[in-house]
Amino acid sequence: MRRKASLILLALAVFFAALSPLLRWYAFPRFAKIPANYYQDMVLEAKDATLLDYGTMKARTVPKVTIVQTLKGNVEASDKIEETAGRDVVVWDSLSYIQGPDGKMVSRIPERYIFDAHSQEPVHATGEMVDGDPVRRQGIEFKWPFLTEKRDYEYFDAQTRTTNPIHYKGTQNFRGLNVYYFEQTIPWTKVQFPRTMPVKGIDRASLAKTGTSIWYTTVRKFWVEPVTGAPVYGEELHKEELRGGSLLGGREKVTAFAGDVKMREDYIESTVDLVKSNRTTVLLLTSYLPWGFLILGTLLLSLSLWLEARGRRPDDPAPTQAVEPEPVTA
Fold it and tell me: What's this model's pTM, rounded to 2 decimal places?
């Protein structure tokens, strides 16, 4: 009976020991992915910002500029791309809507971002664009990979349409989470005017005729939870200038926008709560279950060997009974 129980425990020990690396190195890369129908909205604000008044073409200080950013998964588009890509693909249709303190639109920038659902690497397909302009992204955008490392990454900047390093600057604690802090600086770069302008009748073509150009620089900061690769907080020191041309009436340059763009407090709280929940799910596949199964397998193996050893031990000899001597006769 002991030998049978020992064999059963040995089989279970082998099963759980084999399941441990399978969960970490086989199941996790396949099961951990961004859902195709993912949706997120975010509100960012720049308080006491500088904004150009297109009526007077003068910069003025305003109490607040609001940026509403939405990410919406396009399931139909991702299914279509997956047919030829041969892997799980996510298509995010993004919109950054900027409005002034009066609620009127300053600009709106749509994007289509196509990437691998598991690794977050860009996938190049028809429809990839920023503000209607076709692009070919390199590097990440919006989200870091699962199990983010302490190193620099290549990050795509939508305004310049270029990829630049975003540098790992250290580990910090943010709202009870250990996060990696990343920072990227985009130097002054000439960029394109948005296709949608706040003044009717003004577009890229009419602005090009004036000879006026728009330049942009930013210091981009992200606090990233490394297990999920999700930013829990972001901030940008953002500046835009109009330079030269007849539109400025002889002035060399004028500030179009300048401000410290930060996530609104209620969205910080909801993002942190969501990331904490998703972090537990990822840790189940990468740490909790693999290590738990490995420890369980080790315990079962020890118990199996102990039972086997007891089964092989010789039984104690039975006590001998005293035998009376037979009488001896002459």
Answer: 0.86
